[in-house]
Amino acid sequence: MLFILWLIAVILVISGIVAMFRGALLYGIALIVLGLLVGPGGVSIFT
Q1: CB half-sphere exposure, 1, CA atoms < 13 A
Q2: Of residues 4, 47, 6, the one with CA closest to residue 14
Q3: Residue 2, CA distances (Å) to 23, 28, 43 in order
Q4: Rg of the chain over CA atoms, in angstroms?
Q5: What local confidence, expressed as pLDDT, does residue 8 receive?
Q6: CA 33, CA 27: separation in Å to the nearest integer?
Q7: Please, is 2 exposed, middle or buried when counting C-beta atoms within 10 Å of its C-beta (0-12, 13-18, 19+)?
Q8: Alpha helix positions (H), 1-47
Q9: pLDDT tens, position by position, for the chain (47 residues)?
Q10: Measured in whole angstroms, how far is the alpha carbon of residue 11 from the centre of its chain?
């Protein structure tokens, strides 16, 4: 379960960075923040 949460968080953060480079700044920031919330290293919303 920990690996799956880490993988989802990495995908969300990378998607957010790509979205910011494409010009969707708010969407990119939202994805990065969501990735940090889901990730097991930060404040996880599942624990």
Answers
A1: 4
A2: 6
A3: 32, 24, 13
A4: 11
A5: 82
A6: 10
A7: exposed
A8: 2-21, 25-38
A9: 777 788 888 888 889 899 989 888 899 888 888 888 877 665 555 55
A10: 6
The closest of 6, 15, 14 to 38, measured between CA atoms, is 6
Q: How far apart are CA 26 and CA 40, in angstroms?
A: 23
Scored b (16 or more CB within 10 A) or e, 15-40 reads: bbeebbeeeeeeebeebbebbbebbb
Query: Residue 14 corresponds to which amino acid?
Result: I
Distance CA 31, CA 14 (A): 9
Length of the chain, in residues: 47
Task: Give residue 24's Cα distance to chain centre.
Answer: 15
